[in-house]
């Protein structure tokens, strides 16, 4: 359970960093910071669920492109996961938007990957 909470926290920080660095990714115009934090955590939970369920299927289907591009196509797959998260978040009432699919989503995926990797190295991982 602790490992799950750490992963959600890492996803939340990575999504927050991507929204802060890329103008095309946002969590709404809410003035109240508690609502924004709750939205970020809920989107992080949703993003983790999308990555757990859909990402393995997408990676298997895109394996030839991943091999052909020496792994760079993985960023496109990650951008697609980010876009799916936005599509699911909208009907749930979560204020998470990506303006342009390709560039904003790909750059967001790069930032999320880097921040998640850095935080995974720094934070302890308990597999109990």
Automatic annotation (TrEMBL):
UniProt xrefs under InterPro entries: Phage_holin_4_2
Regions annotated as coiled coil: none
Residue stretches spanning the membrane: 5-25, 37-54, 61-81, 101-123
Signal peptide: none
Keywords: Membrane, Transmembrane, Transmembrane helix
Domain of life: Bacteria
Protein name: Membrane protein
Taxonomic lineage from the root: Bacteria, Bacillati, Actinomycetota, Actinomycetes, Micrococcales
């Amino acid at each position: 359970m602790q490992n799950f909470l750490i992963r959600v926290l890492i996803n939340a920080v990575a999504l927050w960093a991507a929204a802060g660095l890329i103008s095309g990714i946002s969590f709404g115009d809410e003035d109240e910071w508690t609502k924004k934090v709750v939205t970020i955590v809920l989107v992080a939970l949703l993003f983790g669920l999308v990555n757990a369920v859909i990402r393995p299927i997408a990676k298997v289907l895109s394996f030839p492109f991943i091999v052909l591009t020496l792994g760079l196509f993985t960023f496109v797959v990650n951008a697609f996961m980010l876009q799916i998260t936005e599509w699911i978040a909208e009907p749930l009432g979560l204020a998470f938007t990506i303006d342009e699919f390709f560039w904003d989503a790909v750059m967001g995926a790069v930032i999320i990957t880097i921040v998640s990797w850095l935080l995974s190295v720094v934070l302890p991982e308990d597999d109990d």
